[in-house]
Amino acid sequence: MKPIYYILYIFFITTFYPLNAQITIAIADFKNSSDTFYLNSWEQSVPEFLKSELSRSDEILVVERRQLEAVLKEQALNMTGLVDTSAAQKVGNLLGAEYVITGTINQLNEGIRIDAKIIHISTGQVKSEKVQAPDNKYLSEMVALLGNNIIFLLSGKGVHREKVTLEMYPTEYFLAASAGLTLGTLLANNSYNNKLDEYHQATRLSEFDDTYDAANDLNKIRITMATLTGAARVAVGPDLAPYFSDDANFVSALEASATSVADPVWRLPFHDPYESMIEPAVADLDNAPAGGFAGCITAALFLRRFVTGSNYAHFDIYGWQPSAAPARAKGGVGQGSRALLDALDRILPK
């Protein structure tokens, strides 16, 4: 009789207490409800970051985005349509999800707020969580807090946190100094120094002007580095430094150096057909064109309009390490600068 008892015990445990039971959820886009254009990129960034946070929990299984998109296409719905509870229930049932999470992003006087709407598929019950930060520098911290509280809400594991202390990193100052140093190095060469010596000997303003212009004519390439758009960050993430250049020699030298010094870069195009997107009906140029498409490319095209007479390269870098990794502490990080410095001998004219 002992073997029979043993079999019955196993049957009882596996039937009524499923092993490693997980809560299945689907995450839709978060709608930017403000008039702040740069928050458009957060509509997909927030769900992607939230997926990473929730996937850390053994209690939760996140439906892959491509499965969600396939069901939405089949049902002729879009991501923002899931704000409606009945639509969310319908899609959730088709996906086998227990919850659908969607929400909004708002720009307030006090800062930026993310509101998450958590819809229970079987009952239609809606719960909510929100996080708020003083400005847009704290996306990763906001989503980390939001993910922590959603895990607690759905599984009861961990603790619900009302707030976290935001650490101030000197990211902008660090990047400005790094970019300035890089630009200064690129613009300096032996010919320029020779012209500078001639300037020291000049005694009249006309001689100074001629010498200054001649020195600047020797600059063969101009480079800008900026934490400019969220579009580049969404496209390639925090590890790669996106850059734009039409100079084959520059591209070859930079990418060889990027591999050599482990400072990865990724080339994006100066796509000339998008020039019309930065030419509004009234003004000459628009640095923030409507539509939300190709934000990093249109920004690069906008900057290129102000460079004449030399080759031009532009880096649209994130400059931030969202979590600690080997040889990379969390916080501000230079991107592309080591690759540039290593490539100088091959980029600058002899």
Shape designation: elongated
CATH topology of the largest domain: Aminopeptidase
Q: From the 3D coordinates, which CATH architecture of the largest domain would you assign?
A: 3-Layer(aba) Sandwich
Q: How widely separated are the two ends? A: 91 Å
CATH class type of the largest domain: Alpha Beta
Radius of gyration, Cα only, in angstroms? 27 Å
Strand content: 15-25%
What's the order of the H and E elements?
Answer: HEHEHHEEEHHHHEHEHEHEEEH
Spatial ordering of strands, largest sheet = 2-1-3-4-5
What is the H level of CATH, i.e. the homologous superfamily of the largest domain? Zn peptidases
Description:
This protein folds into 2 domains: about 150 residues, 3-Layer(aba) Sandwich (Rossmann fold), CATH 3.40.50; about 180 residues, 3-Layer(aba) Sandwich (Aminopeptidase). The chain is built from 12 helices and 11 strands. Strands 2-1-3-4-5 form a 5-stranded mixed β-sheet, sandwiched between helices. Strands 6-9-7-8 form a 4-stranded mixed β-sheet, sandwiched between helices. Helix 2 packs across helix 5, helix 6 runs parallel beside helix 12 and helix 10 packs across helix 12.
Summary of the model, kept short:
The protein is an alpha/beta fold and 350 residues long. Helix content is 43%, strand content 19%.
Please render the helix and strand layout as text:
Layout: H1 2-16, E1 23-32, H2 42-54, E2 60-62, H3 65-74, H4 85-95, E3 99-108, E4 111-120, E5 126-133, H5 139-155, H6 171-187, H7 190-201, H8 205-217, E6 221-226, H9 230-236, E7 241-245, H10 248-260, E8 265-268, H11 295-304, E9 311-316, E10 320-321, E11 331-332, H12 337-347
Parallel strand pairs: 1-2, 1-3, 6-9, 7-8
Antiparallel strand pairs: 3-4, 4-5, 7-9, 10-11
Helix pairs in contact: 2-5, 6-12, 7-8, 10-12
